[in-house]
């Protein structure tokens, strides 16, 4: 029985996607190869989006407030929990 190939990390998938974009932007690939690269890029994009969505679900900032734990959404742009001032 063949071993299942381990999926790439987010960083590995993103790096491969960036390389594919560079190859496609160069514009010197034969049509068939460009199409194959494009299809691979779409697959990698989906994988990266899934990994990000999964990570977003895991990122929870817990704060202790009046003896209770409160879960706040994570503000990715600021790197801080969103709090009402």
TrEMBL record:
Gene Ontology cellular-component terms listed: cytosol; exodeoxyribonuclease VII complex
Record-listed E.C. numbers: 3.1.11.6
Cell compartment(s), UniProt: Cytoplasm
GO biological process: DNA catabolic process
Protein name per its UniProtKB record: Exodeoxyribonuclease 7 small subunit
Family stated for the protein in its record: Belongs to the XseB family.
Subunit structure: Heterooligomer composed of large and small subunits.
Catalyzed reaction equations: Exonucleolytic cleavage in either 5'- to 3'- or 3'- to 5'-direction to yield nucleoside 5'-phosphates
Coiled-coil segments: 3-65
Predominant place of localization: cytoplasm
Record keywords, A-Z: Coiled coil, Cytoplasm, Exonuclease, Hydrolase, Nuclease
Pfam families according to UniProt: Exonuc_VII_S
Class of this enzyme: hydrolase
MF (Gene Ontology): exodeoxyribonuclease VII activity
Natural source organism: Microbulbifer marinus
Gene for this chain: xseB
Classification via InterPro entries: Exonuc_VII_S, Exonuc_VII_ssu_sf
Source species, domain of life: Bacteria
Protein task: Bidirectionally degrades single-stranded DNA into large acid-insoluble oligonucleotides, which are then degraded further into small acid-soluble oligonucleotides.
